[in-house]
């Protein structure tokens, strides 16, 4: 089994550290790295910014976060890119999981506080 981390920039979990993460915001996305260094979207928090975008689907692949390509980037670094101060915007570029040869889909998401979305990612 691999390690688990929360999508808030720490590997130990936001739920156990509410004081440390009070000002950390995310977009409500769940993802898992695969054996090719890609980060596969495995879920989205209902009503969260990623789901509300309407362009991101489970099975899609995170390609870029704010113009930074994330293939072969450590999960903790991807989490740091996805999170930030509340009410700031992050731009995602995702590849269609079924048709990866299509141009990337772009989505701008406004970050919301972690306790409102409960972002969790898992590494297998």
pLDDT under 50 segments (min length 5)? 1-19, 117-124
| Global morphology | globular
User: How many strands appear in the DSSP assignment?
Assistant: 10
| Termini Cα gap | 6 Å
Helix content: 10-25%
Helix/strand/pairing category: alpha+beta
Radius of gyration: 13 Å
Describe what this molecule looks like in 3D.
With 124 residues, the protein is an alpha+beta fold. It is 14% helix and 33% strand. It has helices spanning 49-53, 75-82, 114-117, and strands spanning 4-6, 25-26, 29-33, 39-44, 61-65, 68-69, 89-95, 105-110, 112-113, 120-122. Strands 3, 4, 5, 6, 7 and 8 form a six-stranded antiparallel beta sheet that branches. It has a two-stranded antiparallel ribbon with strand order 1-10. A two-stranded antiparallel ribbon has the order 2-9.
Features:
alpha+beta; six-stranded antiparallel sheet; disordered C terminus; 33% strand; two-stranded antiparallel sheet; 14% helix; 124 residues
Task: Record the SSE blueprint.
Blueprint: E1 4-6, E2 25-26, E3 29-33, E4 39-44, H1 49-53, E5 61-65, E6 68-69, H2 75-82, E7 89-95, E8 105-110, E9 112-113, H3 114-117, E10 120-122
Short description:
With 124 residues, the chain is α+β, with helices and mostly antiparallel strands. It contains 3 helices and 10 strands, in the order E-E-E-E-H-E-E-H-E-E-E-H-E.
